[in-house]
Design brief:
- This protein is 43% helix and 21% strand.
- Helix 2 packs parallel to helix 5, helix 4 runs antiparallel to helix 5 and helix 10 runs antiparallel to helix 11.
- It has 502 residues and is α+β, with helices and mostly antiparallel strands.
- It has four domains: 53 residues; 247 residues, 3-Layer(aba) Sandwich (Beta-lactamase), CATH 3.40.710.10; 90 residues, D-Ala-D-Ala carboxypeptidase, C-terminal domain (Peptidoglycan synthesis regulatory factor (PBP3), Domain 2); 68 residues.
- The longest helix is centred in the C-terminal third of the chain and has 56 residues.
- It contains eleven helices and 16 strands.
- The chain is elongated.
- The strands form five sheets. The protein has a five-stranded antiparallel beta sheet with strand order 2-1-9-8-7, with helices on both faces. It has a five-stranded antiparallel beta sheet with strand order 11-12-16-15-14, with no helix packed on it. It has a two-stranded antiparallel sheet with strand order 3-4.
Amino acid sequence: MTGNRNSNISIRIRRMAGIISAVLILVTAISFVLPFYTYAEEEEKEKKSKQAEVKMPDVSSSSYIVMSGSTSEVVLDKHDNRKMQPGCITILMTAMVVIDNMYDDTELKNTVTINDELTEYGNTFKKGEEVSVKDLMTTMLVGADAQAAEALARYSASSREIFINEMNSKCLQLGIMDTQFSNAGGSFSQKQYATARDLAVITQAAMRYQKIKDALALKSASVIAKKKDKEREIEIVSSDLLLSDDPKKGYENIKGGIAGTMAEPQNTSQFAAVAIKDDMELICILMDSKQSNMAAEAKGLLEYADTKVTKNVIVKGDKKVGHARIKGGASTRVAAYTEHRGYAYVPPEGSEALIQTQVVMFDGLQAPMKEGDKVGEFRIFVADELKGTVDLIIKKDVPIGWAPSKIYISNLATVMICTVLGLTILFFVRVTSVRKRREKRREAIRRQKIRAMARKQLEIDEDRRRRNWTATGYGNMPPRTTDLRREQLEKEMREQQQKQQE
């Protein structure tokens, strides 16, 4: 009875200990989870508070759109499918086609001569002046210059008409059907039209070109026009009204944009702005807007859209996702990192299972390269359709390497290969040397044995001669073999001497 009682007490104690352990584990779990819920609630409250503070602005533009360049989500829009004059935004398509047609970056040093026909499109450059392709590109993108755009069109294709056809073919590649171009600079034409939605897609595609992206972010730039031995420096000021050195006048998150006004058939303005906040790229297109209202309306739309856009993170910033191959570099295989976070947007009727990603490294990368240079893209697809990209960059400089780097053998690999090759050669030399020494040693031992045997046989023969023994033996016995053996040994000794002499 006493044993059963003690056993029951032990069982109760173990049960009580188990309950206490479970309670402690539950309390610990709650203490860890609760801060996350609290943080999420605070974040949601902060977001709602921010949305309450930012209100939808009044917009006078007859057509506009705010689209996420990161996910292709349309956040705000008004008559975004209405066909209108694209104006200065046309030059974004012009820039993409010119870059696509380039063989390599060395073409930026080529020059274009301004002729009579080009002077009809503007007076930035004068007749007879020579301007580099690089300066024409800068003038076109920074200043929304139609003259520079037309000069580049004539340089890039064998004729202006062929270049226009290439612009419209590029539209088909981007999957936009409600846009048609008839000139490269955005001048008024009844044959030229575009929608705000299509122009947002064009802007999104243009920002994937590093040259365009860098140029649109400039507040000003200096270009050179040459005529004979004279040079003329021209200061180009950005047409983007939101780019400003004064924070009170500018929008701090604007990373590029372009604006312009057409006088035909009436004064009307177009504006494309690209803003990045929390790694989310927003594109704002204003069509048929008043120039005096463009900056304020674009800023208001961008700030309001920032509170409405979906921010579903797919990939974190500064994440290593692969390696880029760089020809001619001291390092030919360099780690690539995401420049910023990548987002994805799935419509309410869709599923997140539709999201797919792809890492694409560019071909033809050549040294030297600098830290921060783009080497590829992290592409985000929704239902097999490309919706956004994240630039992949390198985080170290890559100087020019030694000669083997031209076939993608880095300096370190070259040193290792040479070291292994050298050690291999030394190994074979050592093995060959050891083998020769061993062969010589065996040969010397063999010769010593032959000489010892010959000496012994000579002693035997000498002893027999002293005793007057005949070679024929007694009676009918066969001749002794000692003389034959001696002759054979002497022959072998002569052969060995001849080998040594050779």
